[in-house]
Design brief:
It is a single chain. By secondary structure, the chain is α/β, with parallel strands linked by helices. The protein has one domain. It has 14 helices and 11 strands. The strands form 2 sheets. The chain has an 8-stranded mixed sheet, sandwiched between helices. Strand 5 and strand 6 form a beta hairpin. Helix 3 packs antiparallel against helix 14 and helix 9 packs across helix 14.
């Protein structure tokens, strides 16, 4: 072996050793933290500076809340976190109504809160250097017992490497909070974080056959949230017959929230109930298909509302032609070609710019093409197994490459959903 070759071999061997030691250290940190042997920052509502708010009535609050805007983070180099704020209103009186009646005020508040819960990861990934956004917003809205410890060990790059090593990608992070309503009922809030790091791998768990109708990856994450919620409600002394639950999430978080709400509805009349039958409020955004259940539109799920942007690809996946859908009612935002689209679009763009400091200039042709994405790809991929063939995989890749990336991003990002919800009223929505 020549000297240069020996030198290269030594460098390669050293790199392998460093990688092995690094992976071992990551695993040890994960185990140590899980056993409470290593300190992990914990957000606290008591020590955070709450958002400002003004009480309009004894039950209604209007709050200026901070969150991290994906649009601002991508396009403003002077604001890498995308830090911004927007107005959020929530009225406790809204929860005296049956959950089966759509409430645009609750829906609009949830659009913002889903972005707030996504932003909480920044606190845990910065060792507490950034703000605990969820604690601030929910405390200002009058909630107590705010809990976000699920974000620990699930927010840093090291956490994601550990999840990949441990095979624990079928998980999420979530925020719990609770408050007393004027009628004495407890309102519990559950905000589920969207796709994060290696959790993306869980989104593709559509080939495993467990015998259950729900998406494998989303269901695994939902089971953890449901179990944790049961413990949380028991710890705060909530009576299931006097408990209402509001759950929300964007994208993958919306799919998990969708399954959670369906489980809460299924359990409502049984011995393991966590909430009253008429008290399961779910407002999801950009949620992909989470189930193949034939009964997903049953009356039991009347309190679940799934808001989707027709030009957003994510809610079109997995394909409806494969049998995938969402529990409850799907509600569409204005779409290209709708009578109200061009009249409502300027108001949405103004709200988007007010919230993010960026412009939302839509390519109408691209939006129309994105809205037809599922029908186009369904012809190429008649079954999920089609993706496993070289021809099917190549066809899917061709369709994705042809997508207008900027329009796809704008159609899916939480900021666009927030802006649409703030700009329109219920009459501009289409209920499927």
């Amino acid at each position: 072996m020549t000297k240069p070759v020996r030198s290269i071999a030594k460098v390669a061997a050293s790199l392998v050793v460093v990688m092995i030691v690094g992976l071992f250290a990551i695993q040890m940190r994960y185990v140590a933290a899980s056993m409470n042997l290593v300190s992990i920052p914990q957000a606290s509502a008591a020590t955070s500076q709450p958002a400002t708010y003004a009480c309009a009535t004894s039950t209604s609050r209007s709050v200026d809340v901070e969150y991290c805007s994906e649009a601002a983070a991508m396009r403003d180099p002077d604001n890498p976190a995308g830090l911004t704020s927007t107005r959020l209103a929530l009225d406790d009186a809204w929860f005296s109504e049956d959950a089966g009646s759509y409430n645009h005020g609750i829906a609009t508040a949830c659009a913002v809160l889903s972005a707030v819960c996504n932003s909480e990861s920044r606190f845990y990934s910065s060792d507490g250097a950034e703000a605990p956004y969820a604690e601030r917003a929910l405390t200002a809205l009058g909630f107590q017992h705010v809990r976000t410890e699920s974000y620990a060990l699930r927010s840093t790059v090291i956490d994601q490497v550990a999840a990949l090593m441990n095979g624990t990608n079928d998980m999420s992070a979530y925020t719990f909070a609770a408050k007393s309503l004027p009628n004495g009922d407890t309102l519990a809030f559950v905000g589920v974080r969207g796709s994060y790091g290696t959790e993306w791998l869980s989104n593709f768990s559509i080939f495993e056959a467990s015998g259950l109708p729900d998406h494998e990856g989303y269901r695994a994450a939902e089971r953890e949230v449901a179990d944790a919620l049961a413990v949380y409600l028991r710890e705060i002394g909530a009576d299931p017959s006097r408990t209402r639950v509001l759950t929300t999430g964007h994208s993958r978080g919306g799919a998990i929230a969708n399954l959670l709400a369906a489980e809460l509805a299924d359990r409502a009349n049984g011995p393991n109930a966590l909430a009253r039958e008429d008290g399961v409020y779910a407002y999801t955004f950009a949620a992909p298909g989470a189930t193949r259940s034939k009964a997903c539109d049953a009356s039991a799920y009347r309190g679940i509302f799934n808001i989707v942007n027709p030009s957003d690809i994510v809610p079109q996946l997995p394909l409806s032609s494969w049998g995938y859908a969402r529990y409850g009612t799907t509600i569409e935002l204005p779409s290209v070609g709708d009578p109200c689209f061009e009249t409502e679009l300027p108001a949405m763009q103004q709200a988007y710019e007010r919230n993010t400091g960026q412009t939302n200039q839509c390519n109408l042709d691209a939006l129309g093409s994105l809205a037809a994405f599922d029908s186009k790809i369904a012809n190429l991929l008649p079954t999920p197994d089609s993706l496993l063939s070289p021809t099917g995989a190549f066809s899917a890749l061709q369709q994705l490459v042809a997508v207008d990336a900027n329009s796809a991003f704008l159609s899916h990002c939480p900021d666009t959903y927030i802006a649409w919800m703030q700009a329109i009223d219920e009459d501009a929505l289409s209920f499927a």
